[in-house]
Description:
The structure is a homodimer.
Chain A: E1 2-10, H1 14-32, E2 35-40, H2 46-52, H3 60-64, E3 69-74, H4 83-88, H5 91-97, E4 102-108, E5 126-132, E6 142-145, E7 153-161, H6 162-177, E8 183-188, H7 196-208, E9 215-220, H8 221-230, E10 237-240, H9 242-255, E11 263-267, E12 275-279, H10 296-309, H11 312-326, H12 342-353
Parallel strand pairs in A: 1-2, 1-3, 3-12, 5-10, 8-9, 8-10
Antiparallel strand pairs in A: 4-5, 4-11, 6-7, 11-12
Helix pairs in contact in A: 1-10, 1-11, 1-12, 6-7, 8-9, 10-11, 11-12
The structure holds 3-isopropylmalic acid (2 copies).
Amino acid sequence: RIYDIAVIAGDGIGKEVMPEGIRVLEASARRHGFTLRQKWHDFAHCDYYARRGRMMPENWKEEIGKPAAIFFGAVGWPDIVPDHISLWGSLLQFRREYDQYVNLRPVKLMEGVPCPLAGRKPGDIDFWVIRENTEGEYSAIGGRMFEGTEREMVMQETVMTRKGVDRILKFAFDLARTRPRKLVTSATKSNGIAITMPYWDERVAEMASSYPDVSWNKFHIDILTANFVLKPQIFDVVVGSNLFGDILSDLGPACAGTIGIAPSGNINPEGEHPSLFEPVHGSAPDIAGQNLANPIGQIWSAAMMLDHLGEKQAAADIMRAIEMVLKEPSLRTRDLGGSADTQTCGKAIAVLLS
Amino acid sequence: RIYDIAVIAGDGIGKEVMPEGIRVLEASARRHGFTLRQKWHDFAHCDYYARRGRMMPENWKEEIGKPAAIFFGAVGWPDIVPDHISLWGSLLQFRREYDQYVNLRPVKLMEGVPCPLAGRKPGDIDFWVIRENTEGEYSAIGGRMFEGTEREMVMQETVMTRKGVDRILKFAFDLARTRPRKLVTSATKSNGIAITMPYWDERVAEMASSYPDVSWNKFHIDILTANFVLKPQIFDVVVGSNLFGDILSDLGPACAGTIGIAPSGNINPEGEHPSLFEPVHGSAPDIAGQNLANPIGQIWSAAMMLDHLGEKQAAADIMRAIEMVLKEPSLRTRDLGGSADTQTCGKAIAVLLS
Ligand SMILES: CC(C)[C@H](C(=O)O)[C@@H](O)C(=O)O
Ligand SMILES: CC(C)[C@H](C(=O)O)[C@@H](O)C(=O)O
């Protein structure tokens, strides 16, 4: 088995955690007898922007070609490029142009990770956030008027299409069907955002009617975030719009201890385009360059990528290695109360696979 | 001192907690020698809608007149009226038509309230959420197209005006100036919501430049919600758009134990229109009619109202009474591990004032 992987490290700690992700992938490939052909791309980072005035070459799609998956670090260096320019010129463009309409984010409290919630133990927090990843609040329609005057204003559309809403809901209900509790929770705000969100609710009710074996409920986003803290054990599969999914998939991992280990898959389920795997954390300028970053978000993303490629056993082995390393203070990074630096942690996981 | 108060109990537990709020206000008035002239309004609830097909009479503004403040319970009964209709027909209309552009929400961990965050004690969580309350994501512009077909879609504008953004930021910076730490945290999402949110950031930077004595920072809303859980002690005054403020002002109280005691003021700072005081919680159909509701959100809102009216001592006394009752299991309601029902809790607070 040979897989072509596009590798984009990005900015900041992306450049530090990516080598650890690759280290683990290579160990896994040796162990399980598959081959990863890596193509590293030296764009989609802010130094590139500084040199060329854009985040990626015009022919980036050609450059990337047709890999089996994209393995991505983190983008953003606001001292050089405002975040909305660096992100819309790279990551958000991939999500949209490759129609990676599912953003798949597990939330799981792991042994060894200090939990900020009182009295919660591994097993209490174990759910998925399924985020719509191509439309919604992240729209490109809008603008500014009366610039520089007292009447200055900005407007931006939220756009939801039946196609866009239905396919993410279908993904969530299909996923719930594979889980013991078979429960979908929809994030809404139809009491306040009274045009788009009632539509979302309508489509949820409609989709649910095709899944009589799956139960479902809905919460307004305000009380839903409250319940992540107060009752995280009630969630199984949580589905939300682009913005709500974004919020819940940072809040969820925080409730489970840290964003530092959280992975994500930006999935094009039909396989017409490559899917992209990346940690949930960003480029973290504040700790970049100090070998302090936790590489597990990147490594867990590698496991999700292998799972997506069909290497189920390899993925499961990485997860087991992550779990072992998390239990061991000398192998955990400092953000988790351990003493390891980025490489020590990454190497420990790789060694466990060999 | 005579104050005219408009009283609107609303739906569900609104009808149960309002009498306790009034009970406490009356005790406070007797104690401090002022008079509250109450005018109860039998509209802005879903039974009214069931009879009349609208939430309020056409001449509701005349009916309400020019009270010193509006004391509000909770609205919504989705079995009869969809939430977006009941809320846009009442509460959200008040906020907008009375230009109550500041939504003021304290977040405070109180002794006696079980905190879901590990190792936090009273004093660790003590900040304000200042929410823009008239524009932003809660807009009335948008609609649906290609209805009932595969191409069906909805769009809704987020609208931010310089006037709307600047005045809420000014309020936040002014408030921070009165606090020991003098720190404003801005909620943004300019990396993803790339039209309206960069504008928000721009106005924050501009406003901050007029407050050299106030420090400030900003977080994207996703990591900000994470930090509410991971580092609640770093916040002092948190300012956000209508939607972000809504989310943060449920999440904050949850981190401090419960939404059940959280109050809010919908303020028109210029005093051209009445301000409105209400608990953060909603009408809670699931527990309504059982005398289980925690009345402290309503009672704390009464204290905020008195403070707004200039009765500072009366407000401080209510807060002290709330703190005493929270420490006593037999006087706390069951949501806080106590054994009191709604009235027992309300009466206990009133008695402490007499
Ligand atoms: C009921 C709802 C429309 C309202 C809001 O979103 O503003 C509520 O959640 C609040 O926070 O006051
Ligand atoms: C960097 C940012 C644009 C991005 C998002 O909002 O989607 C990130 O927060 C994420 O969750 O992947």
